[in-house]
Every structure is written in structure tokens, then in C-alpha cells.
Amino acid sequence: MKSIELFAGAGGLALGFSHAGFSPVAVVEINRDCLDTLSANRSTRQRCGHDWPLIQGDVRETNFSEHEGRVTLVTGGPPCQPFSIGGKHRASDDCRDMFPQAVRVVKETAPKAFLFENVKGLTRANFSDYFDYVKKQLSFPEVVRHTDETWKEHLSRLRELESNWFSRGLSYQVHTAVLNAANFGVPQKRERVFIVGVRNDLNVQWEFPKETHSYDGLLWNQLQADYWDRHKVPLLQRLLTPRAAARADRITAEPRQLPWVTVRDALAGLPDPEKDSEASMAFHNHEFQPGARKYVGHTGSPFDEPAKTLKAGVHGVPGGENMLLRSDGSVRYFTVRESARLQCFPDSYVILGSWSEAMRQLGNAVPVRLAEILANQLRMLVDGKKMLVAAE
Questions:
Q1: 366 closest CA partner among 123, 179, 100
Q2: pTM of whole model > 0.85?
Q3: Which of 20, 224, 305, 332 has the fewest Cβ atoms nearer than 10 Å?
Q4: Owning domain of residue 233
Q5: Over the Cα atoms of the chain, what is R_g?
Q6: What pLDDT does residue 387 have?
Q7: Distance between CA atoms of 79 and 297, rounded to whole angstroms?
Q8: Whole-angstrom distance, CA of residue 231 vs CA of residue 93
Q9: Is residue 111 domain-shared with residue 222, that is, in the same domain?
């Protein structure tokens, strides 16, 4: 099944969809460092069964009409800074807002489905009209904005059209949801909004996958000592925070969902780069980064919970939450390899660039595991075939 990947970044979304059997005919990225990363991982992608045709360039200057009717899916993560808590919150007034281009590519290619990802901030109340505008444009991509029309006027026209839609033109059912990656087996508490559209003429109904993992599942696993025994944690170090202990006391039966995957789970088998630099050299991107410190609002990720959200930062990564909080209260920065594991990239996948640049790429990425779960759900819907088994 053929696809197009826009704003590919380090390739997390594209890799997950490749694992699920989608074969990209174009993977578009403008950033040179990201392209270096994508190029460096050619052999890893080939193990998925195919290579990726990389296109270096601005999506705004790329025509996709040659792919009309030939691709099943369009995916991508339009730059999130216009809607990010850490950004300038300018939405449609931000020149980095690429949702209009995402709509254009859907219009030019008419895929069976599309999936776009963005920060949770897009769903904030002050962006509600613009978020609705994005959804309405994706619902009716052929209804383009006039040159003398403001986006709010265009939105009004689209809303009016929605209630009186009798045309046989290109249109999509559009569904949105904020998903926490930790609830799908990703070792990171990462909330992002996903926008999925399915072409109306297919007459199928999209549903987001059900959550499979939970915090209560983790607490139960820890209370039963299974978690601690598996990791051979000494008795005196088997500690829950007061808040976690209080929640654990309210659990009276084994939860149906699997336990959250923790930082300790994710980093299993990796040597501590601060204590054993020689052993760490056996792993790509696993060098110790000095200078980590705690301060108000930036305390690091506890070892025995999913990590806090990895952050990219508007001007690189100053540190912040991209740190490991050890059981003894000390902190250190996550290495690039550890961060890649938190985003579910395989150890064979290298991230190029300085530490801050590599962390920027990873902070902007979609966790590979979550991408694969969504990809399998979409594949079943539009292809009607059995779901592929998610890669470990």
C-alpha cells in the first residue's frame, strides 16, 4: 500500500507505517540534519521491505499531482510551533503553519485516508476556531480559500457547506483524538492530537485504537513485586512516591490493561554512560552529556514510570525534562540512544547531529510503536486484511 510522508523529521511516523506494510513513494523533509538522519538509516528501512524515496525541499514548492489516485495514505506532522506551549501561539499567523499545505496535498492526491499529528496545544480553547477550520478544510479539500477571503470567512463557508453537502466531490470523514502514548505501551507520557480522515466513498467508519496499558496496571505490577523482581531491584530501592502509594491503595483487583512501560524497562541492557563509557561505546549515540541539574519545574523523569514528554524546544534543548531522575534523587541527561528508545526507535537506527540537534529531532518525532498501532488500524480499515503483528 503506497503512502506519502510529509514533514518527515527523524522518521518515527514513517518507520511505524513502514513496519505496518505501507510503502512510501515520497518522504519529504526540508531540514538538512533530519535528511542526514533519514539517509543514514537506509539499511534499517530496507529491513522493512523497501527503501524510502527522500525528497529534500519545501512542501510548499512540491507538486504531488502525479500521485493522484495512486496512493492509499498521506501522513505527516506539520510543524507544531504555532500551537505549542513553548512556542509563540500565533496559529494561522505563524509562517510555519503547514496545515494549508497538508490540505493541498490531500486535494492533489485524493488518498483513501490521511493521518496528521500535532501537539495537544492545538486543541486549546483559544485555537478552537482554527482547529475547526483545519478539520473542515480536510473534510472538503476541493473547497479552496478565495484570494480575497480571510480564513474565518472561509471557515464560515465551509460550515455552511457541511450542512448542505450534496456534491459528489472529494470529501472525508475527519476524526480527532488526543492520545497519550504511555497508554499504548510507549515508555513516555506523551499527549498528542491525531487527525485521521477516511474518504467518504469508501463507506467505512474509523475508530481510534483502544488503550492497552495503564498506570494502575503498573502500580499493580509493582505491588505484586513482579516488576521489581524482573529488574532485580534490591528491596530497599523498591519505592513508590507518596502520591503513587496513595493511588495504589485504591486498587482492589488486577487491572485489565497491561502495565505502563517505564524508563527502567526501556533502558534495560544499556550501560550507564556516566559510569561505564567504554561499554557505552558499543551503542550508537550513547555518550554521556554533562551539565544536568534540577530546578523548579524541571525535575527529570522518574526511573520507574514512563518518561515525561521529550521536548525539542524552540531554540534547541536547554535541558529541562530530558533528564533521568535516579532513585537516589540525582539526575543526568538522557543520551540520544536512551531518548531514541523512549521514542521506540530500534538501536540500529542512528540519529545524526549534535546532542541538542539530535534531541530536537527526537523531541519532534512520533513514537514508532504508536505510529505502527495507528497504521495497522488504518490498514485494516482501508484494505480489509488481517492486522500485522506490531514489531517489538
A1: 179
A2: yes
A3: 224
A4: 213-256
A5: 22
A6: 46
A7: 25
A8: 50
A9: no
Query: Angle, to 10 degrees, between the axis of helix 355-363 and the axis of helix 32-40?
Result: 80
How is residue 298 annotated by DSSP?
B
Residues near 330 by beta carbon (within 8 Å), at least 6 away in sequence? none
Q: Give dist(CA 34, CA 361) in Å, integer.
A: 7
Comparing C-alpha atoms, which of 167, 162, 144, 140 is closest to residue 154?
144
Q: CB of 208 within 8 A of CB of 178?
A: no
Please state, in angstroms and rounded to a whole number, the distance separating the CA atoms of residues 119 and 268.
29
Encode pLDDT of 358-389 as tens digits: 999 999 999 999 999 999 999 999 986 544 44
**Number of independent structural domains in the chain:** 2
Catalytic residue, from 34, 48, 80, 344: name it.
80
In this structure, the answer to whether residues 187 and 228 fall within a common structural domain is no
Whether the CB-CB separation of 97 and 91 falls below 8 Å is answered with yes
**Cα 76 to chain center, whole Å?**
10
Q: Hey, what's the cell of 99?
A: 496545515
Is residue 80 annotated as a catalytic residue, yes or no? yes
Query: What gap in Å lies between CA 138 and CA 275, rounded to an integer?
Result: 51
Please give the full DSSP string across 233-258, using - where no structure is assigned: --GGG----HHHHHHHTT--S--SSE
- Round to the nearest angstrom and report the end-to-end CA distance of the chain: 22
Q: What is the rounded CA–CA span in Å between residue 322 and residue 334?
A: 6
3-class secondary-structure state, position 272? coil
- Residues 271 and 280: beta-carbon distance below 8 Å: yes
Q: Is the dihedral of CA 343, 347, 353, 354 positive or negative?
A: positive
Distance separating alpha carbons of residues 366 and 380, to the nearest angstrom: 21
Q: Which three cell numbers stand for residue 380?
A: 485494516
Q: Are residues 190 and 45 in the same domain?
A: yes
**Reported confidence tier of residue 47, pLDDT bands at 50, 70, 90:** low
pLDDT in tens, 179-211: 999 999 999 999 999 999 999 999 999 999 999
Per the listing, cell 469508501 goes with: 202
The count of other CB atoms within 10 Å of the CB of residue 116 is 25
List, in sequence order, every residue forming a beta bridge with 214; answer none if it has no partner.
Answer: 259
Output the domain CATH number for residue 14.
Answer: 3.40.50.150
197/323 Cα distance (integer angstroms): 36
Task: Give the span between the Cα atoms of 86 and 66, in whole angstroms.
Answer: 38
Cell of 7: 514533514
Residue 33's H or E segment, with its range, is: helix 32-40
| CA gap 199, 206 in Å, rounded | 10
